[in-house]
Predict the 3D structure of the following.
Amino acid sequence: MKTLAITDFKAHALQVLGQVAETREHVVVTKRGKPLAEVIPFSPDKPRPGKLADALVFEKDIVSPLGEDMWDACK
């Protein structure tokens, strides 16, 4: 994993992004020596953080487990 100061990242952002896409190597951007952000290559197969749809289970039919007569009683 490569580290890069934020000033260098700002000056060469397009070049760094191109290298990350090409080499698939992560780059840690630092500010005053402390990690600030990580630039990682995009992967469409990998679930991205914040996608709630990947965390939920969707049932096809939510009425059938109760039965139609129980469904009317539960309204």
Q: What stands out?
A: The longest helix spans residues 13-23. The chain is about 30% helix and 20% strand. The two ends are 57 Å apart (CA to CA). The chain has a mean pLDDT of 83.
